[in-house]
Amino acid sequence: MAILKIARMGHPVLRRIADPVEDPFDPEIQRLIADMAETMADASGAGLAAPQVHAAKRIIMFIVPAERATLEGEEDRPRGLSVLINPVIEPVIGPGGTGMVPGWEGCLSIPGLRGIVPRHAHIRYRGLDAKGQPVEREAKGFHARVVQHELDHLDGILYLDRMPSLDLLTFNEEIRYFPDDLSELAFRGRDATSNDRTPGTVRDGSGTPE
C-alpha cells in the first residue's frame, strides 16, 4: 500500500467524468482501493474519490464517524470504511418539500476552506463493494451528505459548484462567525436547486465530506 498524492482544485482530473470500472477484481483496481484507504486515513478524511488521487475511475470510499451519526436509524448509523465501485444514487423525496438540507462541507482537494452546501436529506444508493458484491442502501444525515459529495467527484463536480452563494465559503478558522442555524442562510442568493444535477446518475458515457 502507498499514500497517494491528492489532486487539488485546478487540476484537470477533478473536472473529468470518471470512467466505469470494468473489472473490480483487476489487481490494479484492488491496489488503487488499498492505496486510497491508506491515503484517506493519512489525511484524516471522511471520504475520498478516485479522481482525487489522479485516477479517473468510478470508485469512492467513506466513513460515518460516530460523532457525526444521528443514531436515529440504519440510514445514519456509524460506519467503518465503505467502498463503492460504479455507484449510482437517487434522491428519496418526502411529501411536502424538496428534501434539501444545508450543511458544512470541506474537501481534501480544497484544503483550508469550508462551505455551506444544500444536499438531498435522504438518498438511496447502489454499487459494488471492494469484493465485487452488490451493495444497496438508504442514507440520511451525514451518511447521505458524504456519499453525495464523493459521487460528485466522479462527475467532475466540486462542492463549490453546489453552493448557492460564495458568500457561504469561509476558512476553517472563521466558521465561528456563522450562525448555528443554517436553514435560511444556505438558500439565499439563488435557487439552491438550480445546480441540482444528481451525482452518480447513469449517463451514457467531510468529520466533513472530503
Automatic annotation (TrEMBL):
Region (Disordered): 189-210
Keywords in alphabetical order: Hydrolase, Iron, Metal-binding, Protein biosynthesis
Domain of life from the UniProt record: Bacteria
Record text on cofactor binding: Binds 1 Fe(2+) ion.
Catalytic activity: N-terminal N-formyl-L-methionyl-[peptide] + H2O = N-terminal L-methionyl-[peptide] + formate
EC code: 3.5.1.88
Residues annotated as binding Fe cation: C107, H149, H153
GO MF assignments: metal ion binding; peptide deformylase activity
One GO process term, biological-process aspect: translation
Top-level EC class: hydrolase
Cofactor: Fe(2+)
InterPro entries the record matches: Peptide_deformylase (IPR023635), Peptide_deformylase_sf (IPR036821)
Catalytic residues as annotated in Swiss-Prot or TrEMBL: E150
UniProt family annotation: Belongs to the polypeptide deformylase family.
Role played: Removes the formyl group from the N-terminal Met of newly synthesized proteins. Requires at least a dipeptide for an efficient rate of reaction. N-terminal L-methionine is a prerequisite for activity but the enzyme has broad specificity at other positions.
Family annotation (NCBIfam families): pept_deformyl (TIGR00079), PRK00150.1-3 (NF001159)
This protein's name: Peptide deformylase
Biological classification of the source: Bacteria, Pseudomonadati, Pseudomonadota, Alphaproteobacteria, Rhodospirillales
